[in-house]
Amino acid sequence: MMQLSHQSPINDKMLVIKHYLTNCLGMEVKMEDRRIRYTKKVIKDTFIELLEQKPINKITVTELCSQCEINRATFYRYYDDVYDLMEKLKSQYVSELKEAISLSKDDYTISGFTSEILEVILRNKELSRILFSLKNGKDFLNDVLDIAHQKCVEKWNRYGKNVPQEQVGYLSTFISAGTIGILNEWIQNDFKESSSEIANLIENISHYGIAKIIYGE
Fold first, then answer.
1. Residue 60 to residues 42, 57, 129: CA-CA distances in angstroms?
2. Which PROSITE patterns match (predicted)?
């Protein structure tokens, strides 16, 4: 609560005015932040809709702004061009994946980090479809999976037989490539299976191999 001084009425009035202006400016900043977030969301959602219809090299800033009902100056306030917009969306997507994985626990498993990745994918279905359909579009997942796999190697070394260093690279490549392939198939099949089913599939293949699943051996 604001406390008034007992020195003079003028000081009290100045304090009231200062308090009022501070609150007003704070509200204006919050409203401005909301407007910016809303504008960026409209641009992002509209851009994704256009990407579902045509390749990025066929999308112009003019068309995007027309669909968003904003002027070009507003677009250029936040992005250099549609390619910059794409990179920022991809960067935000990767950051969300890495953040999800960073919330891991000590008993982290392959199905654990995969579940985190799957949840992010499900929250961004349309963008996931687009990124996975691009040529070399799945390369952005390599860094993410490397982080997750390192956590698994740490667990293997802590609770099981140490993984020979000369084999770590091969194991990482095998699990990462297989995981990306399964994720791609899942996305292309329009998320037919549940995320828990996909997480368990990746876990079983990684831990027991294909023969165990096919032949039960």
1. 16, 8, 21
2. HTH_TETR_2 (PS50977)
Q: Are residues 120 and 155 in the same domain?
A: yes
**pLDDT (tens digit per residue) in 78-116:** 999 999 999 999 999 989 988 887 775 545 566 777 888
| Token representation of residue 111 | 């199905």
Average the pLDDT over 161-178 and give the result: 75
* Per-residue confidence (pLDDT) for residue 139, from 0 to 100: 74
Return the amino acid letter for 14. Answer: M
Residue with tokens 């997942």: 141
Same domain, 24 and 60: yes
Cα separation, 178 vs 57, in Å, equals 30
CB atoms within 10 A of CB 30: 10
Give the domain range for residue 153: 88-217
The structural domain count of the chain equals 2
Last residue of a domain, one of 46, 79, 112: 79
Q: How many CB atoms lie within 10 A of CB 87?
A: 13
Which of residues 52, 79, 106 is at a domain's end? Answer: 79
152 against 56, higher pLDDT: 56
Q: Does residue 212 sit in the same domain as residue 175?
A: yes
